[in-house]
Write a structure and sequence with these properties.
Elements: H1 2-9, H2 13-16, H3 22-52, E1 64-66, E2 69-71, H4 73-92, H5 105-117
Helix pairs in contact: 3-4
């Protein structure tokens, strides 16, 4: 958040409006970091598991060993439930995977600006 504060202090008109939404920007940064360092890997693991264990071969279920952990059918169900829940949140709040693709803070603020200017189509605040 220090970098964001620095950008806001420069008075750049393109991002100054986001100051009003400081708590939202902080939450979006937290979600972005979660997606990049945790959830992206979970999503990849579920996709890989589906590829290794297609539905048509249910009798030949394979477990995947990652380090000391084994991802079996039970673990896959838990991971898939997390993927579904997170995808639901992303759709509700219009957070496309591209939103998380930034390498510099200024790009993140651009993504936030685009999100702020996007027409909100969801009125229900429940997830």
């Amino acid at each position: 958040m220090e970098e964001i504060e620095r950008i806001w202090k420069t008075g750049n008109a393109a991002y100054i409006e986001l100051r009003e939404y400081r708590s939202v920007v902080e939450a979006l940064m937290a979600v972005s970091l979660f997606y990049r360092y945790v959830f992206g890997h979970i999503h990849g693991a579920t996709s890989f598991y589906k590829m290794v264990n297609p539905i048509s071969r249910q009798g030949n279920e394979r477990a995947i060993k990652v380090g000391n952990s084994i991802i079996d059918k039970e673990q896959q169900r838990h991971l898939q439930a997390a993927v579904i829940a997170f995808d639901k949140i992303q759709r509700k709040y219009q957070l496309a995977p591209a939103f998380y693709e930034f390498s510099e803070t200024i790009q993140f603020l651009r993504n936030c600006n685009e999100l702020l200017k996007a027409k909100e189509y969801e009125n229900d605040d429940t997830v």
